[in-house]
């Protein structure tokens, strides 16, 4: 009765040759980047976007009550949140 599992290769002569498999995605990546920039449009200003994100974070951490401020301070101390301004959420 033949074995249920084939015998594994024992030497280089029993090992099948690897096929060369190369895919060049350069053209697709250039096209993808061009499409992203086209979708963003000519008026997209990355610096203004970053300023808007910073303003949103300032607003998010503003007006905290005492318990929220305690949690915020603990998260900053643990390195989960970046310290903003004087180390406290904006009032």
Would you mind describing this structure in some detail?
- There is one protein chain.
- The protein is mainly alpha-helical and about 90 residues long.
- About 45% of the residues lie in helices and about 0% in strands.
- The protein has helices at about 25-40, 45-60, 65-75.
- The longest helix is centred in the middle third of the chain and has 15 residues, at about 25-40.
- The chain starts with about 25 loop residues before the first helix and ends in a 14-residue tail after the last helix.
- About 0% of the residues are buried.
- The mean pLDDT is about 85.
What is the number of E strands? 0
Give the low-confidence spans. none
Mean pLDDT: 83
Q: What kind of oligomer do you see?
A: single chain
Helix content: 40-55%
| Strand-residue proportion | under 5%
Whole-angstrom Rg: 28 Å
Largest sheet: none
Class of secondary structure makeup? mainly alpha
| Measured distance between first and last alpha carbons | 82 Å
User: Can you count the helices?
Assistant: 3
| Shape, principal axes of CA atoms | elongated
- Element pattern in H and E: HHH
Helix-strand layout with pairing:
Elements: H1 26-40, H2 46-60, H3 66-77
């Amino acid at each position: 009765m033949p074995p249920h599992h084939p015998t594994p290769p024992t030497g280089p002569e029993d090992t099948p040759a690897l096929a060369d498999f190369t895919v060049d995605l350069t053209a697709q990546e250039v096209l993808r980047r061009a499409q992203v920039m086209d979708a963003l449009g000519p008026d997209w200003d990355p610096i203004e976007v970053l300023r808007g994100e910073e303003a949103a974070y300032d607003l998010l951490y503003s007006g905290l009550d005492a318990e929220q401020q305690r949690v915020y301070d603990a998260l900053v101390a643990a390195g989960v949140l970046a310290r903003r301004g004087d180390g406290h959420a904006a009032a």
